[in-house]
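Exercise: predict the fold of this chain.
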Amino acid sequence: MAADSKKTTQITHICFFPHKLLKTDPTSRPSAMSAALVPLTIAPFAAGTLNPITDALLCAGIIIHSHIGFQSVIIDYVPDKRLPKTRALFWWGLRLATLVVAVGFFEFETNDVGLTEAVKKIWTAKRPETASVEPILRGVA
């Protein structure tokens, strides 16, 4: 009787994280990743220090969050039964894009100022003075 009451599930896709590791519903993982990005985004600016480890965690979180999001788009909008070759092409495109973004973040972190420092510079940048139109108008008149 216990064998009959077991609920069987069919695996429709391979998730980024194995289901047994998190012991949660697979639909809650993107929400958990989004929630984890909030403190990772605020922490470097609230603490006033730019830590490379926090920077690396933020970059990894952004990469994983984006990968899971685009993975959901592929699962929802490219049906496996009707378009198996197209879906495989999209999967490989997603993997390639994730790899390219990861390499780009790595290069930016190691050879440039880093993500949080770049955001800090953008937020604190002063607006350039706008050019006056008076010299142009004087030449016309």
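Check your answer against the key: The chain is about 65% helix and 0% strand.
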